[in-house]
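Lab notes, practical 5.
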Amino acid sequence: MKGNYLVLGASSGLGKNVSENLLSEGFSVVGIGRSAQKLQAISSQQKTNSFHTESFNVDNFDDCLEFLTAIAKKFGPFEGIFNSLGQERFKALKMIKNKDIELAFNPIIFSTLAILKLSFKKEFLKERGSIVVMSSVSSQSGKSGMALYASARGALESLVKNAAHELASQGKRINAVRAGAVETEMHERLTSNLSGSQLQDYESNHLLGFGKPEDITHVVRFLLDEKSSWITGSTINVDGGFLA
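Output from the prediction step:
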């Protein structure tokens, strides 16, 4: 077996795509997601026994830390970690409630903080290991209804910059990928109510059109690999020119 990776958000979207890519190249993957049913469906499609799954819903830091500690004891240590957790939480500021704030921030921020805390232990993240987290162009561009989601991703990007300074003492790295609109299940949900002209306008804001999951996966794989060993604390735009 080439190596062992931990993927959070593996039950759908980009996490699923990265997991399948790693498995296809002979790596072992521990996939974490909210839906045990979706994880099992992905596992049943694999021609390898190298995909291990655990369902978990992140709603507080301590429970997440305990869960990941147990995962590391069972499957670790890991060569690299990819975190794509998060829920779309798009709502006008005048309509937000406490639950909306929790759902926007808790999964991605608590899970990333728990990963970082454990990553100083060689039993969790191997020497020269790499962490990659998913961000969004919304952190850099304002739009009505996006304040919660965008601010959570902005907080994540700030965390990446600061965490890189502490991880560097052990030769470990963390980076983020700032994605534009990628054709995943979440994208389909978000665009389902748009008219044809609205969808066309949205796509035209991306100079190269909407992205495919593979467009993100290739960059995530590069950042997880030793080929990117001189990159840390960075957020890389993979957005089809949206922010150009």
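Observations recorded by the TA: The chain has one domain: 4-238. The radius of gyration is 17 Å.
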